[in-house]
Amino acid sequence: MKNETVISPELQLFMEFHKISNLKSLLLIEDEILLGMVGFGWRMMREVLELREPK
Question: Strand, coil or helix: what is 2?
């Protein structure tokens, strides 16, 4: 069984809109830059912060 990370539909749409190809690339973008991008908000910021936490 593969351990896949599931993201919200809103975050998926944001990534598609900004042509961010994968989750790893998204997580490398600094918080300040993400918050300044069109369509990104605090709910998605919380999701990104949770994804960055080590499991």
Answer: coil
Mean pLDDT for the stretch of residues 14-20: 97
The answer to whether the predicted template modeling score (pTM) of the entire model surpasses 0.90 is no
Question: According to the 3-state scheme, what is the secondary structure of 23-53?
Answer: HHHHHHCCHHHHHHCCCCCHHHHHHHHHHHC
Separation between Cα atoms, residue 25 and residue 8, nearest integer Å? 16
- 23/32 Cα distance (integer angstroms): 17
pLDDT-based confidence at residue 40 (cuts at 50, 70, 90): very high
